[in-house]
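Board work, copied verbatim: Flavoredoxin
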Amino acid sequence: MKRSFGPRTLLYPHPDLIVGTYGRDGQPNVMAAAWGGICSSKPPSVAVSLQKARHSYDAIMERQAFTVSIPSADYVREADYFGIASGKDADKFAATNLTPVKSDLVDAPYVGEFPVVLECRLLTTVEIGVHTQFIGEILDVKIDESVLDEDGKPDIAKIRPFAYDSARMEYYGFGEVLAKAFSAGREFL
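↓ predict structure ↓
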């Protein structure tokens, strides 16, 4: 029997997306956003939802660009801090000793130490309740060579991303491979 929890933001897993922007003063800033994910294949696009009160909201609107950095589990403390502190009050890069890297494609920074980066040009926004969903066209994905496998593909075991559980307010890592996608279900064809 299933137990009702009512309308809540329970989706498993929530990605831990680190959104990079420049403020009005040109100061690099990052924030943690769990409300997001891939939203289109053509053009390749990612969506992140932010409240208007967030410092990054105005930055994305003004610069029409943002980045999404994917932290490894080694940086869970820093990523959590990015969701706690506001760029209005703190220099998050200085506080964490992480490196802001200027994107060469969009007007936004990314976190140099994080293994995966999506550089995005703002395509459109959608107003949804208390959030605005920013849909960005992914102009490039940069991945550290150290997390590629012998075939040159990203290796999730080396990237070591983590997910957010909004019910428990905890972060979780990923485990073993369960099955090969687009293959495991073929027995039902």
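The longest strand covers residues 116-128.
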